[in-house]
Amino acid sequence: MRTAYRTCPFCEAACGLELTVDGDRVTGARGDREHVFSHGFICPKGAMFGQLTHDPDRLRQPLVDGREASWDEAFDAVRAGLRPVLERYGPHALAIYLGNPNTHTMSGGLYISPLLRALGSRNVYSASTVDQMPKHVSCGYLFGNPLIIPVPDVDRTDFMLILGANPWESNGSLATAADFPGRLKALQARGGRFVVVDPRRTVTASHADEHLFIRPGTDAFLLFGIVHTLFGEDLVDLGDIAGQVSGVSSVRDLAADFAPELVADACGVPADRIRGLARELAAAPAAAVYGRIGTCTVEFGTITSWLVDVVNILTGNLDRPGGVMFPLAPHLTDEAKRGRGFRTGRWHSRVRHLPEVKGELPVATLADEIETPGEEQVRALITIAGNPVLSTPNSGRLDRAVAGLDFMVSVDPYLNETTRHADVVLPPTDAARKGHYDFSFLALAVRNFAAYSPPVLPPEESVPDECDILARLTLMISGQPDTDAAPLHDLLLQQALQKVPAELHDRVTGDHPAERLLDVALRSGAYGDRFGADPDGLNLRKLIDNPHGIDLGPLRPRIPSVLRTPSGTVELVVPPLVLETARLRAALTRRHDDLVLVGRRHLRSNNSWMHNVPALIKGRDRCTLQVSPADADRLSLTDGEPAQVTSRAGTVTVRVEITDRVMPGVVSLPHGWGHDAPGTRLSVAATAPGVNSNILTDELVIDPLSGNSVLNGIPVELKPA
Ligand code: SF4
Predict the structure, then answer these.
(1) How much is the pLDDT for 186?
(2) CA distance to 578, 645, 717, per residue, from 637 (Å)
């Protein structure tokens, strides 16, 4: 028996885990009390680290046409399936879908980009367009880089306005904040307040100082009402960054038509409360507006995400302690550089002519690209750690489309609703056998820190590392010999060392290719040891020697060095946002008498892939349709009885839960369920399959600036089943 420490890889919170290891099994997991960031916090998912690692349904060997095969056989089958498609139809006939867990692995952080470059396909899709793409686009416009995202400085703020987010259950997103609930309680304990705006009285809302119901998808009206008030009542004060912001008067002009009294009906928040929020944000010593899934996965997702930061900027809360700030991750540098700005639409999708955003196309159009004949029709698909058949809109249609592909390969540990269609499944090693560093989430942390976790268990002889799998696929797609991943590992290290003097190259340490790449990034990064020149600086060895992480202090102001806009300022208004504001203005007069569907999150769920652990699905059925008492009465629905829900895309039957936690006019169904498809190997999930909410979501409706799917605010009809 021994103890090992590692970062939890399951969500964005990046908690430290203390694992009990018995031989080659992880037998227990609890919070690491000495961890510099999470201080012992853990949620039920992290506590299941061992159960997920040793899940009997996890694939241990590749599958070729559904039967277990050797790794050589599997790679031969992938080569035999992919190469003819590439040679006959070209790179765009091969699409790739990247699931959310890629942002939680080192292989995802280091080996996906080379794979995409080798692929050269326009058909790149990911979970980003059913999640946070609007935030990338709005930050790209404002700051010149879609990956530069300010996070709420929750530990120092006095007032927080939370829109469409439920961090009590999700533990935060686009804001890495282990123990988000504890941080919100601390905010209240030091005399601060937080207000939640949400169509559901979530767990977070029930702990808030105030909860305001809002009609789904209308947060942009509320936020424009706040902006209008800030200008109208002379409350705009940009603070220390005033000289580095351009376009303030254009924002005032855009907000002119959104007086609180004009938007109140559309969003359902009283005008005096909208004005009150504007005054509170302006008056607080430090305040932060934080918007998440409910502000992104809606028709006006980009403009809503933009307005979140516009309010932060106009109230002087961008880049100041207690406001919203830019983290500085250890693998990144903080050099000032004039940027070229951000643009979308470098190419368009073939069928619906939707613009590329951040190198990818909206996953809402993947089925179009597979089903529609013609040049560059998608004929083969790679999925990596993804389950788009459950997690993308009109998934019934995508399920049928994927079944008709010429060839499909999935890198995935599970035979799930998507990978059951794959000709070849390549299962990577489990999390306990790979090192962990959060390339994505240390750049979103509410306090700067560094942590690296070496593998807890030794590698399995017969199972290639995930970096090796992706490297071999990259070589294969490039038409190079692919039986050995080493040439790509060597090439990536050479590229990483390009700016490092040759005499320092032998100082790079690490037992694994990913560790060596990380060591180079850490040593060259903002806190790095410059390959020995700064003995106090960071390197891989130092992180290994500090298994509870290294605290790098509170967030610090980073404007202007963080900006990459052409002007070197925060550019508040760009032409696409002006056009989108006109569309939003027109939507003010829409009728709002539809019943609309929203999703919801549960502490023991993480999208679609944590339902195969008994402890995470036990208890009462969580996949219910929440309906308000008023709607249940009007539609003759009975608590506990099934109801039929129909949208443009499909129909499901689901058990009704009558509750006043949803506002009238809104029904709520969680996502990630629907584990009753034949041909999967999810024996626990199949015992409580639930209903797939994405049968109802509509692939034809997207946020036009980001291509993000609309997963909240879906018009539905409802009747007793
Ligand atoms: S909150 Fe997230 S990171 Fe922390 S233990 Fe739970 S799943 Fe893991």
Answers:
(1) 98
(2) 44, 12, 12
Tokens linked to 420: 């059951």
Q: Which of 295, 298, 231 is nearest to 259 (CA)?
A: 231
Q: Is the CB of 42 under 6 A from ligand 1?
A: yes
Domain 593-720 class, CATH top level = mainly beta
pTM for the full model? 0.97
Which residues of the chain form CATH 3.40.50.740? 60-126+330-552
In the chain, CATH 3.40.228.10 covers 153-326+559-585
- The 10s digit of each residue's pLDDT in 163-172 is 999 999 999 9
CB of 63 closer than 8 Å to CB of 442: no
Domain 60-126+330-552 has CATH 3.40.50.740: yes
Q: Whose CA is nearest to atom 2 of ligand 1?
A: 11
* High-pLDDT (> 90) share of the chain, %: 96
Furthest-apart CA atoms within the chain: distance in Å: 77
Whether 100 and 607 have beta carbons less than 8 Å apart is answered as yes
Q: By mean pLDDT, which of 80-84, 201-205, 617-621 is the weakest?
A: 617-621
Residues 494-524: tens digit of each pLDDT:
999 999 999 999 999 999 999 999 999 999 9
Q: What is the pairing mode between strands 714-720 and 642-646?
A: antiparallel
CATH superfamily of 153-326+559-585: Dimethylsulfoxide Reductase, domain 2 (3.40.228.10)
C-alpha closest to that of 630 among 670, 669, 590, 667: 667
* Atom 8 of ligand 1, residue of closest alpha carbon: 46
Helices (H), 293-445: 293-296, 301-314, 366-371, 388-391, 395-403
| Residue minimizing CA distance to atom 6 of ligand 1 | 43
Nearest atom (ligand 1) to Cα of 14: 3
DSSP for 543-563 reads HHH-TT-EEEEE----TTTT-
pLDDT single digits (tens) 570-608? 999 999 999 999 999 999 998 877 899 999 999 998 888
What average pLDDT does the structure give for the chain? 97
